[in-house]
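Handout for the seminar on molecular recognition.
Each group receives one record of this type.
Step one: identify the two inputs.
Step two: read the structure output and locate the region that could contact zinc ion.
Step three: write two sentences on what you found, then compare them with the reference statements printed after the record.
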Amino acid sequence: MRSAQRRALGAASVAVLIACTVTPPAHAESASLERFDTVVVDAGHGGDDEGARGAHGIVEKELVLDVAKRLRARLQEAGLEVVLTRDRDVYVPLEQRTDIANRARGDLFLSIHANAASAREARGIETFFLSLEASDDDARQVAARENAAFRDLAVPVVAEDDPLVAILGDLAAAELLQESDAFARLAQREVSALNGSPSRGVKQAPFVVLMGLEMPAVLVEIGFVTNPDEAHELASEGQRDRIAEALARAALEFRRRYDARRGLAAPAPEPAAPDRMGEGGG
Ligand SMILES: [Zn+2]
């Protein structure tokens, strides 16, 4: 287990927590000069790990890779570096995805998945960020399914008596969780505003792929492939584009806030495209 993972997961003493809250980390100053420039986009599953299978022939690993590539294109257009943890149909172990993201020094990690349920009527969008305790039974089940590829390690169990202290073990982890929460809300708002899919809210659960990341991280479930109506939508290119655009809007708003907090002005806006001239010109 990597040290960052241990830091996020390992039980930490209250003393450490208190010490960290009164002493800013030494790297705070240099970090403040860093502009938000890299997004890591993680298409769930791949290779033998197909993820969920649903109506209209949808296979989760194919759907989420397609959406991830569409998202990459939009973020690149906005001037961001984008790293995909996989760009083809290949199995990438969950811990390797974390390594890829940390090595790329990503400013944001966005894992894209699709939901499944035995009840065909289950539908909607939900966004997760990390915790050791699932926020409800549904969240626990989603995490169990998405962690299924990670067979080497059962879902980590940390000191049950005080999981909060464990996860807030240092200031950096607490800050990352706060930022993850903020981005989860942005992403959830944008994607669930798209169409008739209800918002199932922002939730927390112990997703292996979100552990040990040194950047804010969320996992978005973009709809239920087991719901015939949502599967029909998800099968269309138009809907995949709209989801990618919604996620890009959320990431760009997160970038704006991130840079503003560090006193960095937003990058200069793109010049108006010629085809937009004359709009509203009377
Ligand atoms: Zn999945």
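Reference statements: Residues 44-45, 51, 60, 113, 146 surround zinc ion (CB under 6 Å). Residues 94 and 209 are 5 Å apart (CA to CA).
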